[in-house]
Inverse folding.
């Protein structure tokens, strides 16, 4: 009996029958259908991926500390950049947001659990298998994929290492997991809201995840399609990406980025939701412009389907295409600007305090905006011919993904951890973590703008001498940033497993908004809501 | 007394088994494809594929049986039934997007890459790659005939493909007749129309096999005969796989109707299979139009 749903009146089972806690031992995690257990597993998987992908970044930065080749050979360097990107995107950021969705959406909308609890656990357990398969390519003959996380044909077809087949099937498994997870989120939000929780009363994290889930269902199948076409080209003589048979390598880029651009919003929209909650709580004001936030998020999602070729300005598109994708891309600045305006206006004349989640949230607003503005520079087609494939691009997308997406995830963990486990994390450790991360992240990624504008190409293990000083700074910053994440791990460990730290109140913060604070105790019981909460 | 109460989920071993079965299936497929290109297919990979196949069958059968049994025991609330409907709808949307990717590739090749290689249009400068290549669709003479030998002929849309179009359209009607009979509690008629649907689906697949045989052996139209063959087999092949899956669903529904699982107002399993079948039908109409006729 593994369903969730509302039973009416007399048919309802009694508390004694069903109010059970978690099972003991490892099988609790393997067989679970509980959204909190599954959320925790997603978050741990994301943390594991963050560490593995982080070690790969260390290899990259160690090699680039000085000009010349010193540590690894160029082919292995390429494997590291490829795997670093794939693991951070598919293994760290995406699963972390799914983990947060699992923990928070049922609590925020007054549901007992996710709508399809068994599918939920299936979606999770596909991922460890997928990543084992992906990582196993490192030990195969010819090495791991070395064609960049965007796996452009013909690098990923004609010139790919033999392990590419396993990469393709690993992507398929991740795709199944993402689509099923996204269907679950949509059904939960559509169908499991407590009575009275209308769409325009939903917390913004729920709204942003609803739109994210829609994007996932729309584009993950296209990713599955593009890797299938690769498979056919590699093994069965098809010519999708080979002009000798009438295909086109550029076709790969079109199909890939039709997936890839919505994908980058998949990695940032839930962050927008998180930041909206945190800024409102620590400014002690309701969020400014809730409705405009909903519409801005929707507009960003819709626009994400018609901007993909701005990744391909230098590939040789017709002029009409360059212009269309340039202007449509610039349009995205409008809804994004609305969001930044709303966050700043929420803080304006608020009675602000600066606990760790708020520090990360404010850093998010500032640093994400820097990443957004460099994106606006890249959107200018004629200028992009200079910036394309340089470290300027690397700086741009790391600014939106690290102090953007990753900072929002860290902020979310600090913000909701007391609710989840019933204890406050250590505030001074949190502040140390924040400031070291903040300094580290800027040391790492800001100088990349300069070397990029000066022409340093990405994905190359060596560089010209004039870039040496900046690269040394970047590498020091990267190691500082990576090491400071250990403080975070220790802080979470001592709060949850170590059971240190003062007990959290039910509200945790001063007057936060949302059912998870007002209708549930800290820590949250294993089964969130036994009866639907009241929503005014 | 009438406050609704939530039902609490219990643990299940199907998800982990499902994850492992999917992994083993795809891993063994990857191994076999990898080995067939780079060395020789090993017995180990084949054994792995066989085990994976049985595991998949066991998992699917077991998991779906459990869901069906829960439904029969009346454990599914109205809310859960709604969840099933919504999730099936979104699942089909994901399938639509899967096919959309391949149709996108087809349109791109027809509208952009082939004319450009033939020297036409704004990027006609690519014409210098293969002097003497002229663009036409369907692409019979490929730019590099030594690397990708084009087909000797094409399949006439109004022969076997047209028969298949008729078969699938009629099958959508017979399935709807079955649905109406089910709503009117006429079991014999429901079973008859379901049998007809299954028969039409099977006939479709047989015609498709005959068409593939004709294409491969007489026309030399294969997946490696240039972009036309590539898109042709990608689209029709995945469509055929979906017809097969849809037919399996309908067969299961046939058994379930026979066992009296459905009532006139509660038969979502049947409807889900029907939605899927209609979706596959619509994909075929797109295919027939853009792959065969135009």
């Amino acid at each position: 009996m593994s369903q969730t749903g509302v039973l009416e009146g007399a048919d309802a089972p009694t508390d004694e029958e069903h109010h059970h806690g978690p099972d003991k031992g490892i099988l609790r995690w393997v067989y679970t259908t509980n959204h909190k257990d599954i959320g925790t597993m997603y978050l741990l998987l994301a943390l594991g991926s963050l560490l593995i992908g982080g070690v790969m970044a260390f290899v990259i930065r160690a090699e680039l500390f000085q000009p010349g080749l010193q540590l690894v050979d160029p082919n292995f360097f390429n494997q590291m950049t490829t795997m670093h990107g794939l693991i951070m995107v598919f293994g760290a950021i995406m699963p972390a947001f799914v983990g947060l969705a699992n923990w928070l959406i049922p609590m925020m909308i007054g549901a007992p659990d996710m709508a399809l609890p068994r599918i939920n656990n299936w979606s999770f357990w596909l991922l460890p298998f997928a990543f084992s398969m992906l990582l196993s390519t490192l030990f195969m003959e010819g090495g791991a994929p070395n064609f960049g996380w965007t796996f452009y044909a013909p690098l990923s077809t004609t010139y790919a290492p033999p392990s590419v087949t396993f990469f393709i099937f690993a992507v398929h498994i991740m795709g199944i997991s993402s689509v099923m997870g996204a269907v679950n989120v949509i059904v939960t939000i559509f169908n499991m809201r407590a009575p009275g929780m209308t769409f325009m009363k939903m917390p913004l994290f729920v709204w942003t995840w609803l739109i994210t889930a829609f994007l996932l269902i729309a584009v993950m199948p296209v990713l599955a399609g593009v890797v299938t076409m690769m498979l056919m080209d590699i093994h069965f003589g098809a010519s999708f990406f080979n002009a000798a048979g009438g295909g086109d390598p550029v076709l790969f880029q079109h199909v890939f980025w039709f997936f890839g651009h919505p994908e980058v919003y998949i990695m940032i929209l839930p962050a927008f939701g998180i930041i909206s909650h945190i800024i409102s709580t620590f400014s002690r004001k309701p969020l400014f412009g809730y409705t405009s936030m909903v519409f801005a998020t929707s507009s960003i999602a819709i626009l994400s389907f018609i901007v993909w070729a701005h990744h391909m300005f230098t590939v040789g598109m017709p002029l009409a295409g360059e212009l269309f994708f340039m202007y449509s891309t610039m349009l995205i600045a409008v809804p994004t600007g609305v969001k930044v305006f709303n966050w700043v206006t929420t803080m304006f004349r608020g009675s602000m305090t600066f606990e760790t989640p708020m520090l990360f949230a404010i850093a998010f607003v500032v640093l994400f905006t820097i990443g957004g503005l460099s994106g606006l520079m890249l959107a200018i087609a004629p200028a992009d011919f200079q910036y394309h494939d340089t470290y300027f691009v690397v700086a741009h997308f790391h600014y939106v993904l690290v102090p953007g997406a990753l900072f929002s995830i860290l902020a979310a963990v600090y913000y909701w951890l007391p609710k989840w486990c019933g204890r406050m994390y250590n505030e001074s450790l949190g502040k140390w973590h924040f400031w070291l991360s903040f300094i580290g992240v800027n040391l790492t990624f800001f100088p990349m703008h300069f070397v990029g504008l000066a022409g340093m190409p990405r994905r190359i293990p060596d560089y010209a001498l004039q870039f040496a000083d900046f690269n040394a700074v970047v590498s020091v910053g990267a190691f500082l940033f990576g090491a400071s994440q250990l403080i975070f791990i220790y802080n979470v460990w001592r709060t949850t497993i170590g059971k240190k730290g003062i007990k959290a109140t039910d509200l945790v913060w001063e007057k936060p908004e949302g059912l998870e604070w007002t209708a549930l105790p800290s820590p949250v019981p294993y089964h969130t809501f036994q009866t639907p909460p009241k929503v005014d | 007394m009438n406050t609704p109460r939530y039902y609490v989920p219990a643990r299940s071993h199907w998800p982990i088994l499902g994850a492992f079965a999917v992994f083993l299936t795809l891993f063994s497929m990857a191994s076999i494809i990898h080995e067939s290109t780079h060395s020789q297919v090993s017995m180990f990979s084949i054994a792995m594929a066989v085990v994976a196949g049985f595991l998949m069958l066991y998992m699917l059968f077991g998991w779906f049986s459990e869901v069906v049994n829960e439904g029969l025991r009346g454990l599914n609330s109205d809310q859960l039934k709604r969840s099933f409907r919504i999730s099936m709808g979104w699942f089909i949307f994901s399938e639509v997007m899967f096919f959309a990717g391949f149709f996108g590739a087809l349109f791109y090749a027809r509208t952009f890459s082939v004319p450009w290689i033939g020297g036409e249009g704004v990027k006609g400068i690519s014409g210098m790659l293969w002097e003497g290549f002229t663009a036409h669709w369907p692409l019979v003479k490929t730019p590099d005939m030594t690397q990708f030998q084009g087909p000797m002929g094409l399949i006439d849309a109004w022969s076997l493909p047209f028969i298949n179009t008729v078969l699938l359209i009629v099958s959508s009607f017979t399935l709807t007749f079955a649905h109406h009979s089910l709503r009117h509690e006429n079991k014999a008629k429901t079973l008859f129309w379901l049998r007809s649907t299954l028969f039409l689906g099977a006939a479709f697949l047989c015609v498709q096999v005959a068409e593939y045989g004709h294409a491969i052996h007489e026309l030399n139209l294969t997946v490696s005969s240039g972009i036309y063959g590539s898109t042709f087999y990608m689209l029709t092949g995945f469509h055929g796989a979906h017809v097969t899956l849809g037919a399996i669903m309908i067969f299961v529904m046939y058994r379930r109707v026979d066992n009296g699982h459905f009532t006139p107002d509660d038969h979502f399993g049947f409807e889900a299979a029907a939605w899927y079948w209609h979706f596959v039908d619509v994909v075929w109409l797109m295919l027939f139009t853009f792959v065969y006729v135009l």
